[in-house]
Design goal:
Blueprint (H helix, E strand, L loop, with lengths): L2 E3 L6 E3 L1 E4 L10 H13 L4 E3 L8 H9 L9 E6 L14 H15 L4 E6 L8 H14 L2 E6 L4 H13 L7 E2 L14 H7 L3 E4 L34 H17 L3 H9 L5 E6 L4 H8 L8 H11 L3
Parallel strand pairs: 3-4, 3-10, 4-5, 5-6, 6-7, 7-8, 8-9, 9-10
Antiparallel strand pairs: 1-2
Helix pairs in contact: 1-2, 1-9, 4-5, 7-10
C-alpha cells in the first residue's frame, strides 16, 4: 500500500481507503464487517471514512466496535455532519449548535476521543459559512477533531470557507470529498484547481460508480443487484456508459488487471487525489481493490482510456 499527503497538510492516508457508505451497519453484518476492516488494516489501509447518517449512526457504532483492538494512533478516522438524524428542527445543517452536538454523538458512537477529519457533509444554505468555519475551527482547537473538510461543496463555497478562516484566523478546510470516477469528472474543471490552489487534498467517493465500473452490469442489470432499483444509478447505467465500460473492460484484460483496478488506478493518476474511498462487502473484493495502489498506468494506456471516455 502506498500513502499520500492530504493536500499540503502533514497527514498521510492510504491511497485506497475503506468507506462505510452502504456497507457497515447496513448490508454487511457485524462479523463480516470486522473481518473486512481488520483485513484492510493488515494490508496497509489506515483511513476509514464514516458519516453519522450512514445507517443512521449504526455505521459509526459498527466501525467503533471493530477497531477497539487497534491502536488508535495507527488509524485515520473521519465522520461527517449535516444530514438530520431526528425530527428535531436543529438536528440538521451546519449551524454551530448542530455541529457541536453532532461531534459529541459521533465520538460516543465510535468510542474515540477525537476524529482525524470531520467533514461538512454538504453545504448549508441556511447557515452563514463564517458560522460553520468558526465552529469547525473551535473543534480543532479543542482537540475533538484534528482537521476538517468539505464534501460536495461548490467552488465558490470552498473559496468563501478559506477566506473566512483567514479573516477569523482559524483553521481552514484541508480536504474536499467529492464524487469522482471515470463517468463523473465534473470536479476537474473548477473544484480541483481551487482545492489545489488552497492546499486541499481530495478523498473521492464512488470511484467505481456504485459498481458500474466493475463491469458487473455489462450484460444487463440483474434484479437482485443495487442497480435494479436505484434511481441514483440511472445516469451511470446509460447505454452510452455501458458501451464505454465494455471497451474499458477489454482494455483492462489486455493490461492483465481487472476493470475495478483500472478504474481505481485511473483515479490515482492525478496528484491532487489523496485517496479513493472504496467500499467492500467481501474480503476478496477488498483485496482486488487494494491491489490498485501498486498499478501505475502507462501514458499509452491513459491515452486509450481518454479516447474511450470521449466516446471514440
Amino acid at each position: 500500500m502506498k500513502y499520500r499527503r492530504v493536500g499540503k497538510s502533514g497527514l498521510k492516508i492510504s491511497e485506497i481507503s475503506l468507506g462505510a457508505w452502504l456497507t457497515f451497519g447496513r448490508s454487511v453484518d457485524d462479523k463480516n464487517s470486522e473481518k473486512i476492516i481488520h483485513s484492510a488494516i493488515s494490508q496497509g489501509v489506515n483511513f476509514i471514512d464514516i458519516a453519522d447518517v450512514y445507517a443512521k449512526g449504526k455505521a459509526e457504532e459498527t466501525v467503533g466496535q471493530c477497531i477497539r483492538s487497534i491502536k488508535r494512533s495507527d488509524l485515520v478516522i473521519s465522520s461527517k455532519v449535516f444530514w438530520p438524524l431526528s425530527d428535531n428542527i436543529n438536528d440538521r445543517g451546519l449551524s454551530r449548535k448542530h455541529i457541536m452536538e453532532s461531534i459529541d454523538k459521533s465520538l460516543k458512537r465510535i468510542g474515540t476521543d477525537y476524529l482525524d477529519i470531520y467533514f461538512c457533509h454538504r453545504s448549508d444554505p441556511e447557515t452563514e459559512i463564517e458560522e460553520t468555519v468558526r465552529a469547525m475551527g473551535d473543534l480543532v482547537s479543542s482537540g475533538k477533531i484534528l482537521y476538517w473538510g468539505t464534501s460536495v461543496w461548490e467552488p465558490h463555497q470552498i473559496e468563501q470557507a478559506v477566506k473566512a478562516a483567514k479573516k477569523y484566523n482559524t483553521h481552514p478546510p484541508i480536504v474536499e470529498q467529492p464524487r469522482y470516477n471515470m463517468l463523473d469528472r465534473h470536479i476537474e474543471a473548477e473544484i480541483m484547481p481551487i482545492g489545489k490552489r488552497h492546499g486541499m487534498g481530495f478523498t473521492v467517493w464512488s470511484p467505481l460508480a456504485e459498481g458500474v465500473l466493475t463491469g458487473k452490469y455489462n450484460e444487463g442489470v440483474p434484479q437482485a443487484t443495487r442497480g435494479a432499483g436505484s434511481e441514483w444509478m440511472k445516469n451511470d447505467l446509460s447505454p452510452a456508459n455501458i458501451a464505454k465500460v465494455k471497451k474499458l473492460s477489454a482494455l483492462a484484460q489486455t493490461l492483465g488487471i481487472t476493470m475495478s483496478q483500472l478504474a481505481l488506478a485511473w483515479i490515482l493518476r492525478r496528484e491532487e487525489i489523496s485517496c479513493a474511498i472504496a467500499g467492500a462487502t467481501k474480503e476478496e473484493q477488498l483485496k482486488e481493490n487494494l491491489a490498485a495502489s501498486d498499478i501505475k498506468l502507462s501514458s499509452e494506456a491513459q491515452a486509450k482510456i481518454e479516447l474511450i471516455l470521449a466516446g471514440e
